[in-house]
């Protein structure tokens, strides 16, 4: 049955791969370099390079009449970023992103919790698909579907009328700030659609985080006298937090940057994404557009840093 | 830059930045098609990028990659100043002579005697309204979109009107003030000193409280009139025509304060890759058939008076209906500059841009 | 007083009878061990006591009060989980103080109590660390402190020493035993390590397939196993078949014979003896293990390290005191 | 793992069900309007039912052109993302080096930053480098943010391949390439497939980055945007959307089952 | 012939001296055990032999050939991993045939060899299953077959029985030993279980902190520990302080005294003896363990189960044969 050599040390391999393999074994650093050779230039040079180039543009200015860029270092653009009209845009967007994130987490949590802790077997698969289907359905078409729902002549109004609840809707629309002429022309509408479109991004990370919470920690809490509410507050929630943070990277960032939703469902008050889009595309003011992008970059920078600290990357 | 001296063979394609409804190939209505034949005859395939505002057009031209643009007066001078467009050789455009003389040397297409493009269409910014709400009676004044009031149907105009989402709309406010606050001394709605400008913005701030959503895209405005309960707005004849074709209760009017308007020029990009096809298109665009069809479709006035006669789509009354005789009453879009004829020092366009964003944002 | 009473308690999961008609009466202050192979229902019994499972049949009382339907957080019973189940996001001190916190004890007071509990398990000053920064043995002690700080009337321990290595395990066994004595709390201890159960418990319940096979003192179950299963499972006893037992002069019943009861040679006049061939030997430090084949049966004998070990293949005679052979209840 | 108490509290069931309903009703609406007889506006309830739009959509060459571009872009972007993502995952999980952490951050960045930033950054880089818009500029943009899904899937799987499995292979005489071929690839294969499918779906539906990197080319989402703003036959858009939902559903389903089974395989060693 | 030779081999990880100047000469055909506490460098030594680590100092030879710089796949040495490291995507047969496949052996031949190897580890017919479908003990045997099918000159085993439960572990110990004898392959076996090392190995190297503390036969290390560490680690010996040793009539050196060497009572005339108080007793089944405090030293004695156990608190005299006390090399 002796089908292999008796030598304690086998001969060197002569095939190309064999030699290469020996070579990499002896030079692990070179091997690492080989692995990183394709992705690192792509992400580290092309992508990061583009980002830096963009940031650099924010230090130029634009000739107001002809719309051509004036390649001279200036902080003017940033001064412009902070004029009240622009600052409003930033504030409005960040508040919206925060609220959308909060609401997404609130709606996503029960779904994720159920899927993680109770759904089994076939149900679990069904839940997963039920989350994935809306997640991957065409973003644009979803947004337009909401336009139909929220319009003054739309389905929601129709439904409220059928239920004789139009007064309720009108009362809401009469409120300052959140109200408006119709839901599709109000912050309420923008908010609903943002939540709808980004919320699925929250479910899977929370579910993943919850699934990693060992059941016996929940039992331990009960064992030590914690009632279900206390167990949730002191054990489950803190341990699901990395998942919530991971999910909120998406909800927050996607809200910060989107320009399509507030354009279609909104009251013409700009969001950062629209401002960037408008400055870049409509006004051709690349420096100001670049300065606007600094806001999400800084915010997401902090966000990622915090997420990393909280171990949220594992839940992505 | 020296213009082309001789027309060569077509390059096979031409790309045009245009207003919605300006260049139709029969996709919405088979009868309105002035592209297919051109492509067949010249072998130049036409691609169109629609832009919703003049700013967008300027930005697209700055970015490059296009041959032609149908620029309004508030964009054309900027394009010329920025050297984004090139002078044209009118000799290469046989139909140049047929152009309405009022337009041949208009300040928005001719600088220091040099022509930058061929006039395409012109027209007014009309007041579009819902005939049911206004009980069949056209509103007399622009005040329905500037001041809170009860409309003939007994409900407030609040939340039921719209305004154009472009800084040039400040001129509409100034135009309104010319009639209602003569003490401001506005002579030209595109040339405003600080006080006049401030008064216009104040008026627009009032308007903001009445407007639910500003209109940016012609098609979306149509949607808003149909689905969002909007009943009055400054608009283009284009939207009016489309909705009337759909049997919507829509009409338009020239209010007593007069109107702003646009006169558009087909301009050639400085770095055009397909100048021959571009010249062919400019020539094509001046043919009475195209002029008439396009004017009919958009609800505009042709630049070639010959088009007013015998065009099936436009009809013989078409030019008159669309304002052929009102040329002098229309205050055409142009770019506000700091040096201005009427008062020496005016608020320049970049302030209009940022301040209008502020007004819409509630500042 | 009876701390925990099981009357015909069953817990079935579908067709699986995890716990099947178990009767137990654990006395107050007792160190009670549940011993059995994997899957025999020990953990399920413990979970029934803690309240994580509800019985599908029978009746449970804790200190005379009915326990069915009472959720875990309303039972004055605490558990030390096999893998400790420390809260990874809380410091050691917060872990230990957790039970007091959810009961609404003021912060200063509960932290002080937690400090004391940590001192009791010999981990003073470790309070500010996180569970991840402790070794297995230290975590085990934190789990213990976290349970004890609540002053439970019954402490349940599910293989608390399973994950520790030998040295630490022996040390913790002694500490646990001492702690139980000094506190006087009833301990219910689950293990599948017979040595651990024998050395620590006052009484042992031997489980198999959801049922209690034997319940008695360590000596009882070790020396007087009632079933073949117990004989085989508790210590590595030789279980002899009825025919072989008969040939030694006993009734034809199954019997157990401890390896250490066997000696080389003819033995005294009262001794019983049989002959066989050595098939294997091994050195175990304190003892040598001899495997002898006699009449087709393999029998292990444990000889003191001082005795000479006959080499493999030699014929030997082994003897034992007549009373060391234990006849079992089970018929042939 | 021991299961929780067998059934969930009522309140949880209701909130979870309500959440799922919220997620699905608008999608249903998309489907409904694919069959309406009203062409110009979205009248509710729809005045009539017709299958006509399926045929109309089928015969629209612009739909096919956009679809074909989207499929080609998504395929190539996915392929690129597969290679880059796998290499990154291998480097991060199989070796230790300075800057390892930075790489995982770098990979996540394109998806963590809003698409509009990725979009205009690349666009201004293209114009700076005088690169004209083309198929490849779209692919470049898409591949950049698709890398992360492949990476995440691969890293998770690499983490579960015990280090000793690779050592076992080498110990048994397999060199580096043989180990990759016979041990690593079969074990990460399903994770890569799953990651690839998600990447495909992500690329297939991307509007914002595409807007900035496509120039005048029309991918399916760009076509939809145009169509939604300037509708000709509104229900056609819904038909296309519906078909896209149904078609993307298949790879998602497959990805789910692939990673499922993968879990069992990878977990079997424990 | 020397199978594995370590000459002053070191493997440092930064400041950590995982392996520190180790000298070993493992003979061909030997069953060699490496014993030591966690972190003492056993695994690192094994990995140096397999080629997964390169020494930072010293020299390694395998059957006389220099091993430094030779990748694992060129060493005719195979490893049985602690967690088995079976390939989950391959069938059992393919797992076992893997080593032959990558060497380019024809399919029919390698599958036949794999079948034979499976038969050798008593798993014939299991070839078509997946690793996930086997129990822990069965997987362990597959890992063994997968290594052995390559006919390695040295087989390395890293705590191969660590994950098995007691019963299975004892069974596998016997099987492994028998297999090694029949095949004649050199086995290098890592464990932290002293019992396992003592019962299985021909020679044992006791590791501590990256160094070999003692190298010898099981009897050597058990009965004649050279250092306190060895005495303490191998079996639970009593390590006596020089003063106490002196009081018993020996030179004032550290000494070890095995618990099972102690007996209750005065003993024979040659015996040494001391008195003390019983502080703890515990029943261990085959034996009783008595902890006695004498002159401030706690000493454990292991008494046969048959002997009566004096209760806690009584004064007792313990005796032992003079030669059972083992003086250590270490000075006071
Ligand atoms: N939630 C459950 N659902 C189904 N079967 C279960 C459940 N919990 C336990 N069982 C089954 O009940 C039996 C007893 O399990 P239990 O955990 O009580 O055993 P154990 O004695 O603690 O074993 P171990 O020593 O392995 O921990 C096993 O067959 C187990 O598979
Ligand atoms: N790759 C490494 N990098 C840094 N330190 C290491 C590495 N491998 C091992 N060590 C350290 O070397 C020392 C010896 O480790 P080794 O794994 O050889 O111990 P061991 O005797 O096998 O322990 P155990 O019984 O726990 O397996 C330990 O302190 C360990 O932390
Ligand atoms: N359905 C996919 C939603 C689109 C999200 N795009 C994220 C890309 C970030 N650059
Ligand atoms: Mg258990
Ligand atoms: Mg080790």
UniProtKB/TrEMBL annotation, chain A:
<feature type="transmembrane region" description="Helical">
    <location>
        <begin position="30"/>
        <end position="56"/>
    </location>
</feature>
<dbReference type="GO" id="GO:0005886">
    <property type="term" value="C:plasma membrane"/>
</dbReference>
<dbReference type="Pfam" id="PF00528">
    <property type="entry name" value="BPD_transp_1"/>
</dbReference>
<keyword id="KW-0813">Transport</keyword>
<keyword id="KW-0472">Membrane</keyword>
<feature type="transmembrane region" description="Helical">
    <location>
        <begin position="185"/>
        <end position="204"/>
    </location>
</feature>
<dbReference type="GO" id="GO:0055085">
    <property type="term" value="P:transmembrane transport"/>
</dbReference>
<feature type="transmembrane region" description="Helical">
    <location>
        <begin position="89"/>
        <end position="113"/>
    </location>
</feature>
<comment type="similarity">
    <text>Belongs to the binding-protein-dependent transport system permease family. CysTW subfamily.</text>
</comment>
<feature type="transmembrane region" description="Helical">
    <location>
        <begin position="158"/>
        <end position="179"/>
    </location>
</feature>
<feature type="domain" description="ABC transmembrane type-1">
    <location>
        <begin position="90"/>
        <end position="304"/>
    </location>
</feature>
<keyword id="KW-1003">Cell membrane</keyword>
<dbReference type="InterPro" id="IPR035906">
    <property type="entry name" value="MetI-like_sf"/>
</dbReference>
<dbReference type="InterPro" id="IPR000515">
    <property type="entry name" value="MetI-like"/>
</dbReference>
<feature type="transmembrane region" description="Helical">
    <location>
        <begin position="125"/>
        <end position="146"/>
    </location>
</feature>
Automatic annotation (TrEMBL), chains C, E:
<dbReference type="GO" id="GO:0043190">
    <property type="term" value="C:ATP-binding cassette (ABC) transporter complex"/>
</dbReference>
<dbReference type="Pfam" id="PF00005">
    <property type="entry name" value="ABC_tran"/>
</dbReference>
<dbReference type="GO" id="GO:0005524">
    <property type="term" value="F:ATP binding"/>
</dbReference>
<protein>
    <submittedName>
        <fullName>Putative spermidine/putrescine transport system ATP-binding protein</fullName>
    </submittedName>
</protein>
<dbReference type="InterPro" id="IPR013611">
    <property type="entry name" value="Transp-assoc_OB_typ2"/>
</dbReference>
<dbReference type="InterPro" id="IPR050093">
    <property type="entry name" value="ABC_SmlMolc_Importer"/>
</dbReference>
<dbReference type="GO" id="GO:0015847">
    <property type="term" value="P:putrescine transport"/>
</dbReference>
<dbReference type="GO" id="GO:0016887">
    <property type="term" value="F:ATP hydrolysis activity"/>
</dbReference>
<dbReference type="InterPro" id="IPR027417">
    <property type="entry name" value="P-loop_NTPase"/>
</dbReference>
<keyword id="KW-0067">ATP-binding</keyword>
<dbReference type="GO" id="GO:0022857">
    <property type="term" value="F:transmembrane transporter activity"/>
</dbReference>
<dbReference type="InterPro" id="IPR003593">
    <property type="entry name" value="AAA+_ATPase"/>
</dbReference>
<dbReference type="InterPro" id="IPR003439">
    <property type="entry name" value="ABC_transporter-like_ATP-bd"/>
</dbReference>
<keyword id="KW-0547">Nucleotide-binding</keyword>
<dbReference type="InterPro" id="IPR008995">
    <property type="entry name" value="Mo/tungstate-bd_C_term_dom"/>
</dbReference>
UniProtKB/TrEMBL annotation, chain D:
<dbReference type="InterPro" id="IPR051789">
    <property type="entry name" value="Bact_Polyamine_Transport"/>
</dbReference>
<dbReference type="GO" id="GO:0005886">
    <property type="term" value="C:plasma membrane"/>
</dbReference>
<feature type="transmembrane region" description="Helical">
    <location>
        <begin position="63"/>
        <end position="90"/>
    </location>
</feature>
<dbReference type="InterPro" id="IPR000515">
    <property type="entry name" value="MetI-like"/>
</dbReference>
<keyword id="KW-1133">Transmembrane helix</keyword>
<dbReference type="GO" id="GO:0055085">
    <property type="term" value="P:transmembrane transport"/>
</dbReference>
<keyword id="KW-1003">Cell membrane</keyword>
<feature type="transmembrane region" description="Helical">
    <location>
        <begin position="102"/>
        <end position="122"/>
    </location>
</feature>
<keyword id="KW-0472">Membrane</keyword>
<dbReference type="InterPro" id="IPR035906">
    <property type="entry name" value="MetI-like_sf"/>
</dbReference>
<comment type="similarity">
    <text>Belongs to the binding-protein-dependent transport system permease family. CysTW subfamily.</text>
</comment>
<feature type="transmembrane region" description="Helical">
    <location>
        <begin position="239"/>
        <end position="258"/>
    </location>
</feature>
<dbReference type="Pfam" id="PF00528">
    <property type="entry name" value="BPD_transp_1"/>
</dbReference>
<feature type="transmembrane region" description="Helical">
    <location>
        <begin position="12"/>
        <end position="35"/>
    </location>
</feature>
<keyword id="KW-0812">Transmembrane</keyword>
């Amino acid at each position: 049955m002796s089908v292999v050599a008796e030598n304690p040390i086998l001969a060197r391999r002569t095939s190309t791969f064999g030699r290469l393999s020996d070579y990499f074994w002896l030079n692990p650093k070179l091997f690492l370099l080989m692995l990183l050779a394709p992705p690192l230039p792509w992400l580290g040079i092309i992508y990061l390079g583009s980002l830096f180039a963009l940031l650099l543009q924010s230090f130029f200015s634009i000739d107001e009449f002809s719309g051509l860029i004036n390649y001279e270092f200036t902080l003017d653009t940033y001064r412009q970023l902070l004029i009240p009209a622009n600052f409003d845009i930033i504030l409005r967007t960040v508040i919206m992103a925060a609220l959308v994130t909060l609401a997404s987490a609130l709606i996503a949590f029960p779904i994720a919790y159920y899927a993680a802790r109770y759904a089994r077997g076939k149900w679990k698969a069904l839940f997963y698909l039920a989350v994935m289907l809306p997640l991957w359905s065409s973003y644009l078409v979803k947004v337009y579907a909401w336009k139909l729902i929220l319009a003054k002549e739309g389905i929601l109004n129709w439904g409220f009328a059928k239920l004789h609840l139009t007064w309720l809707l009108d009362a809401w629309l009469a409120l300052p700030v959140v109200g408006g002429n119709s839901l599709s022309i109000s912050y309420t509408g923008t908010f609903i659609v943002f939540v709808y479109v980004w919320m699925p991004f929250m479910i899977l990370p929370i579910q993943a985080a919850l699934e990693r919470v060992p059941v016996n920690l929940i039992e331990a809490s009960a064992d030590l006298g914690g009632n279900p509410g206390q167990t949730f507050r002191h054990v489950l929630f803190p341990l699901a937090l990395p998942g919530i943070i991971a999910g909120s990277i998406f909800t927050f960032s996607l809200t910060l940057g989107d320009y399509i939703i507030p354009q279609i469902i909104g009251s013409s008050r700009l969001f950062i994404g629209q401002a960037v889009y408008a400055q870049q595309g409509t006004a051709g003011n690349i420096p100001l557009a670049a300065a606007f992008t600094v806001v999400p970059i800084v915010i997401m920078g902090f966000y990622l840093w915090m997420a990393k600290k909280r171990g949220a990357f594992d839940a992505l | 830059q020296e213009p082309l001296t001789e027309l060569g063979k077509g390059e096979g394609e031409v790309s045009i930045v245009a207003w919605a409804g300006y260049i139709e190939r029969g996709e919405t209505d088979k009868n309105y098609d002035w592209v297919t034949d051109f492509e067949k005859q010249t072998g130049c395939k036409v691609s169109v990028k629609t832009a919703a505002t003049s700013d967008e057009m300027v930005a697209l031209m700055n970015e490059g990659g296009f041959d032609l643009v149908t620029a309004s007066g508030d964009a054309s001078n900027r394009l010329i100043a920025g050297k984004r467009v090139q002078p044209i050789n009118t000799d290469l455009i046989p139909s140049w002579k047929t152009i309405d003389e009022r337009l041949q040397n208009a300040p928005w297409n001719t600088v220091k005697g040099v022509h930058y493009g061929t006039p395409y269409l012109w027209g007014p910014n009309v007041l579009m309204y819902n005939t049911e709400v206004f009980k069949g009676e056209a509103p007399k004044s622009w005040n329905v979109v500037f001041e809170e009031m009860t409309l003939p149907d007994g409900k407030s105009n609040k939340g039921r009107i719209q305004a154009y989402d472009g800084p040039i709309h400040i001129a509409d406010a100034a135009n309104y003030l010319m009639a209602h606050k003569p003490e401001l001394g506005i002579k030209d709605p595109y040339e405003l000193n600080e006080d006049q400008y401030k008064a216009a913005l104040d008026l627009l701030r009032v308007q903001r409280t009445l407007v639910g959503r500003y209109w940016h895209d012609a098609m979306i405005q149509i949607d808003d009139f149909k689905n969002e309960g909007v009943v009055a707005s400054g608009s283009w004849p284009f939207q009016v025509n489309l909705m009337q074709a759909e049997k919507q209760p829509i009409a338009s009017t020239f209010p007593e304060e007069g109107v702003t308007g646009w006169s558009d020029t087909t301009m050639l990009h400085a770095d055009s890759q397909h100048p021959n096809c571009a010249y062919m298109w400019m020539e094509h665009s001046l043919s009475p058939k195209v002029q008439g069809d396009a004017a009919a479709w958009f609800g505009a006035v042709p630049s070639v008076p010959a088009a007013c006669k015998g065009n099936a789509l436009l009809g013989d009354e078409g030019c008159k209906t669309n304002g052929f005789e009102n040329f002098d009453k229309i205050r055409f879009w142009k770019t506000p500059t700091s040096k201005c004829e009427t008062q020496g020092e005016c608020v320049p366009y970049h302030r209009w841009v940022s301040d209008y964003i502020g007004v819409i944002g509630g500042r | 007083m009876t701390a925990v009473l099981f009357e015909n308690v069953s817990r079935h999961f579908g067709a699986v009878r995890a716990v099947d008609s178990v009767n137990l009466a654990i006395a107050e202050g007792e160190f009670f061990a549940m011993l059995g192979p994997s899957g025999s229902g020990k953990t399920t019994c413990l979970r029934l006591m803690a309240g994580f499972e509800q019985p599908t049949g029978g009746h449970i009382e804790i200190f005379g009060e009915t326990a069915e339907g009472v959720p875990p957080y309303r039972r004055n019973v605490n558990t030390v989980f096999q893998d400790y189940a420390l809260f990874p996001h809380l410091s050691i001190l917060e872990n230990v103080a957790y039970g007091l916190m959810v009961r609404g004890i003021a912060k200063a007071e509960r932290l002080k109590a937690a400090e004391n509990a940590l001192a009791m398990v010999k981990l003073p000053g470790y309070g500010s660390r996180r569970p991840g920064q402790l070794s297995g043995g230290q975590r085990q002690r934190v789990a213990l402190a976290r349970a004890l700080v609540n002053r439970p009337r019954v402490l349940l321990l599910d293989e608390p020493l399973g994950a520790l290595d030998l040295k630490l395990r022996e040390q913790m066994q002694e500490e646990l035993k001492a702690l139980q004595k000094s506190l006087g709390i009833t301990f219910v201890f689950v293990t599948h390590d017979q040595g651990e159960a024998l050395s620590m418990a006052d009484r042992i319940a031997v489980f198999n397939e959801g049922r209690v096979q034997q319940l008695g003192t360590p000596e009882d179950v070790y020396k007087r196993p009632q079933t073949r299963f117990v004989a085989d499972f508790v210590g590595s006893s030789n279980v002899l078949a009825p025919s072989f037992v008969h040939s030694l002069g006993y009734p034809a019943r199954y019997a157990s014979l401890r390896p250490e009861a066997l000696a080389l040679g003819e033995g005294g006049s009262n001794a019983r003896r049989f002959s066989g061939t050595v098939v294997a030997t091994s050195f175990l430090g304190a003892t040598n293990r001899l495997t002898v084949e006699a009449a087709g049966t393999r029998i292990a004998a444990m000889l003191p390290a001082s005795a000479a070990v006959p080499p493999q293949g030699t014929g030997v005679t082994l003897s034992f005191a007549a009373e060391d052979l234990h006849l079992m209840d089970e018929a042939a | 793992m021991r299961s929780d108490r067998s059934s969930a509290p009522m309140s949880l069931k209701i909130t979870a069900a309500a959440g799922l309903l919220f997620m699905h009703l608008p999608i249903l609406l998309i489907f409904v309007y694919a069959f309406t007889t009203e062409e110009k506006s979205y009248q509710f309830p729809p005045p009539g039912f017709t299958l006509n739009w399926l045929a109309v959509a089928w015969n629209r060459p612009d739909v096919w052109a956009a679809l074909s571009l989207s499929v080609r872009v998504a395929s190539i972007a996915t392929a690129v993302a597969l290679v880059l993502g796998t290499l990154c995952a291998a480097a991060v999980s199989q070796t230790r080096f300075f800057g390892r952490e930075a790489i995982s951050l770098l990979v996540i960045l394109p998806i963590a930053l809003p698409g509009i930033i990725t979009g205009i950054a690349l666009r201004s880089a293209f114009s700076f480098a005088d690169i004209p818009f083309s198929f490849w500029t779209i692919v470049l943009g898409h591949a950049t943010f698709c890398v992360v899904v492949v990476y995440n899937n691969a890293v998770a799987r690499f983490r579960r391949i015990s280090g000793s499995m690779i050592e076992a292979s080498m110990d048994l005489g397999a060199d580096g390439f043989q180990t990759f071929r016979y041990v690593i690839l079969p074990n990460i294969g399903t994770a890569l497939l799953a990651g690839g499918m998600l990447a495909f779906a992500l690329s297939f539906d991307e509007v914002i980055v595409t807007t900035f990197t496509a120039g005048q080319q029309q991918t399916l989402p760009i076509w939809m945007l145009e169509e939604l703003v300037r509708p000709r036959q509104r229900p056609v858009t819904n038909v296309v959307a519906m078909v896209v939902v149904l078609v993307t559903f298949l790879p998602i389903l497959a990805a789910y089952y692939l990673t499922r089974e993968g879990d069992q395989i990878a977990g079997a060693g424990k």
